[in-house]
Amino acid sequence: MKTFKINSYAKVNVGLKILNKRSDGYHNISTIFQEIDLHDELTVSKKIRGCQFSSNVNWLHNDQNNLCVIAYNHMKDLYDIKGIDIVLTKNISRGSGLGGGSSNAAAVLKSISKIYDLNVSDENLIEIGSKIGADVPFFIKGSTQIGEGIGEKLIGLKSKIKGWYLIITPDLTIDTEWAYSQFKNILDNATLPTKFSDLFSEKVVDLDTIKFFENDFESVVFPTYPEIGAIKKELFALGAKFASLSGSGSTVFGIFDDNAKVKKAFSHFSPMHKAYIAHSI
């Protein structure tokens, strides 16, 4: 039975602008996605029929709320495949703004293409992924990309944002729908902000370039959850060159250019919060 093992990486948003609300209820955004080496692990195998799913967490089930199962069903509808068995080891926290579920779905799409020798192009996988979730297309190629539309319009950047990434995830789950809902009055009175794609004619981005970037979700998340805002302030105080909420949270991350400082900051936050030192990939 053919088996494929794949790492399913997390992402952070280095800056996130909410541009406007669309007629379909989604929001147009502009963001820089940076893939990092914090990851889940998937083992995907062929089986006779259906989709079997198991994991090391009790909040994921073999049902239609599971993005891995949804990814399989999309592939089954499009291609002549039989069944798969998915074993997922979760390390990325849920509801944290790190894109774990979307990354898992993208990993399943790529795995099915591999074990069934479908040779589906990245462009087709991106199109399929866009029907599953807004962040899924990014994870098909990963690395460093500007995301626009609802996140599915992607522009690759030439260089990743280097440094030591300290990922801090407090024991809080932020409802993304709630976070977007708080922007209604703001967007009604806002002028259209600059998109990140307008800033990078050379497609190169580094710590000096990003230091003034902000995540619009901070304006609604930090007042409601001041403990999350406090983490960002502490990261700067501990020597981070850049710090931000990722997605709608609850994860806050800092990028450091000094190994000793990131290790000291890690000791400051752990074990009070889930903390990881990661790198861009």
The CATH architecture of the largest domain? 2-Layer Sandwich
Secondary-structure element order, as H and E?
A: EEEHEHHHEEEHHHHHEEHE
Major β-sheet, in short? 6 strands, mixed
Tell me the helix content.
25-40%
What would the principal axes of the Cα set say about the shape?
A: globular
Looking at the structure, the CATH topology of the largest domain is Ribosomal Protein S5, domain 2
Structural summary, described in words:
The chain has helices spanning 67-78, 100-115, 122-130, 136-141, 176-181, 184-188, 207-210, 218-224, 226-237, 259-269; strands at 3-21, 27-47, 51-55, 83-89, 144-149, 153-156, 164-169, 242-245, 252-256, 274-279. By secondary structure, the protein is of the alpha+beta class. It has 2 domains: 3-156, Ribosomal Protein S5, domain 2; 164-279, Alpha-Beta Plaits, CATH 3.30.70. It is globular and about 55 Å long.
Give me some keywords for this one.
six-stranded mixed sheet, globular, 281 residues, 10 helices, alpha+beta, four-stranded antiparallel sheet, single chain, Ribosomal Protein S5, domain 2
